[in-house]
Amino acid sequence: MEKRDFMYEGKAKRMFTTDDPAYCIVEYKDSLTAFNALKKDSIEGKGQLNNLISSALFEYLASKGVETHFVRRLDDVRQLVRKVSI
Length: 86
Known about the structure:
The chain is of the alpha+beta class. The protein has one domain: Phosphorylase Kinase, domain 1 (2-Layer Sandwich), CATH 3.30.200. The chain has one helix at about 45-65; strands at about 5-10, 15-20, 25-30, 30-35, 40, 70-75, 80. The chain has a 5-stranded antiparallel beta sheet with strand order 1-2-3-7-6. A two-stranded antiparallel ribbon has the order 4-5. It is globular. The mean pLDDT is about 95.
């Protein structure tokens, strides 16, 4: 799956389109904020840890039959997810 255009950036992640319009790529960042974003910093490895935790939670939910947007972990900081409307 090829990463294409930037879609969104929040405090902890960025989202990108892919070459398949049904899927997106979530990329976890190493940045962090505190005190309602008054303090900002970066911690190497935070994005990787967030990706591991998030992937593990979504895989657990899938093992219990709960459908989510999660497809699979792509690498240390990226996940492939289904595009959804909320």
